[in-house]
Amino acid sequence: MADNVTSLFRGTAAHSPSMAALAREGGDGSGPVDFCIPCNPYFPTPAMFEDMAARLRDIITYYPSSADTITAELCNLLQLPPQAVAMGNGSTELITWIDHLLVRESLAVPVPTFGRWTDQPMETGKRVDMFPLQESGGFALDLAQYAEFIRARGTRVAVICNPNNPDGGFLPKHSLVQFMDAMADLDLIVIDESFLEFADAEAEPSVVQEAMLRPNVVVLRSLGKNFGLHGIRFGYLVANPSLAGRVRSMLPKWNLNSFAEHVVFMLKEHGAEYAQSLHQVRRDRLDMASQLSSLPGLTVYPSQGNFLFVRLPVGAEGTVVRDRMLTEHRILVRECGNKIGSSSRFLRLVVRPQVDVRRLMSGLEQVLYGTRRGAAVPEQATGTGYSSGTAAVDRLVSATNGAGIPGLAAQALDAGAPGLPLAPGTGTPLPAAAALTGGGGLPMPAPATQPPQQPAMAPQPAGLPQPAATPLRLGAPQPAGLPQPGPQSYGNQQSFGGRQPIGAPQSFGNQQPIGAPPSFGGQQPMGAPQSFGGPQQLPTAPAAQAPMPTQPPPLPAAAPAAPAAAMTGPTPPGVPARGGLTAAQVRGATAPGQELAPAPATGWPNAQSWPNAAGMGQTG
């Protein structure tokens, strides 16, 4: 496999070769340990696989029932009206029909995100307006700025993935409902909840019920990811009966196979096992994030999905790490250099059981640090195509041709070098980017019309906490504007205007590393003490502190008749749309100390435990 690994990745239209292709190359017919494909490793249970194996002959011999029959059974399980549901041969089939039927001219989507939301509309000639999520803001999505971006571009369709793929960022339900109300004049709003079953930030985070009551909202859900069965290819969407009916009428008569039918009809007997599997994935996510954050120079971003988004140490090249992990350790990881809005410095690592995580940690230590755990061994990079979204980091990488800080390994092994500040509580030298910012405000990204290698430096306004918004009730008058959500507290974490990387070795403005004293300028790290004694104020620029306003700026209530003259013209393919701003919206993180109730010992979980009409289950 060592001689052919690069050609395997280059020879596939997908981001990674299939497990079947990797197994064929392996020689022994077995594939690598998979940290790439995000599925549930605990479901179906071994007993369920045995049942399917015993019935394999009948399953593959005979035609399945019609899609209407399978959909009706799923809706009975999820307590949804069949008229509001359309099942597809995987979520990708549904995305394709959404694009063909419901997207007329333009679509806005934050990037990085799931690739089909950018690629599919461009393949059919639509304008895709890409709203860049900045690394300097922890890849957080600010819904207010996203709405302003949509208004300025005149976009007619908006997409939000919650949690987002690949970073796992989460948006509270009440913020999404307010966004839907503020954007009620758009042709369509799509909320992709493919990974929401793995979230534990809220008991019922889904907006499925709200979508069925609105004329322009579609919620997309995945079954393959939740059930660990990507190969079966099944997913569903929920919308008002008119929208769902339009999609359903275009789907083939037998677009769902017999395996999908068999799994759907056996689910009612295995609800407790499914709920317990979600519980275990959430626990594994905490353990895996904690272990990865102990690696020097590796940044782990908080996630509500069944995966973790990590930034490699300075000088490490993602494709080199990916290839060496596969050839030397038979571990497959997702290198994110081909995702729009990301770079090869980032990996997405799927949450897996501890026995696999120990193998991952051993492989990463050897690939990144050699035999000693001091600092990343810089790989020779090409010096092209990298854009972190942070001006200081871009300047550093450009100046060193991607090789990072000279002598970084020796400095780290000596527990610090003169002239380089140390990360609090770690003894690891901070990258020059952090020193350049002085720990103060974050540099703003340059306009899209300027070359990314030389962006202009400008201090970012410090985020201001907003009053917590109460969840909206159906039938109650809704505000026209979309206020910023207030500080969200999930377990032992508190968020104030930016996502805090887990175990980050350096501080970028509002981001606070684990082990340092609590800072209310960014998301509070895991395990840090919380203060609930009174209102908190964020530190502003070093010169002075300004009082907090009591009301956030409202969203524009109505769409303009046409985009502003300065913002006209289509977005070039693969380039973030003009006018994108630094994101600072808190999207939540996994709560490290949150108590998780065990699943019922027998029988089907209650309505709140299954992915029902109200959303994810409370169990786990």
From TrEMBL:
Domain of life, per lineage: Bacteria
Keyword Transferase attached: yes
Bias-annotated ranges (Low complexity): 455-479, 533-548, 558-569
InterPro entries per record: Aminotransferase_I/II_large (IPR004839), PyrdxlP-dep_Trfase (IPR015424), PyrdxlP-dep_Trfase_major (IPR015421), PyrdxlP-dep_Trfase_small (IPR015422)
Coiled-coil residue spans: none
Positions of region (Disordered): 431-620
GO molecular function: transaminase activity
Record-annotated Aminotransferase class I/classII large domain positions: 71-360
Sequence ranges of Pro residues compositional bias: 444-454
Keyword tags: Aminotransferase, Pyridoxal phosphate, Transferase
Reported cofactor(s): pyridoxal 5'-phosphate
A Pfam family recorded for this sequence: Aminotran_1_2
PANTHER family in alphabetical order: HISTIDINOL-PHOSPHATE AMINOTRANSFERASE-RELATED (PTHR42885), THREONINE-PHOSPHATE DECARBOXYLASE (PTHR42885:SF1)
Protein name, UniProt field: Aminotransferase class I/II-fold pyridoxal phosphate-dependent enzyme
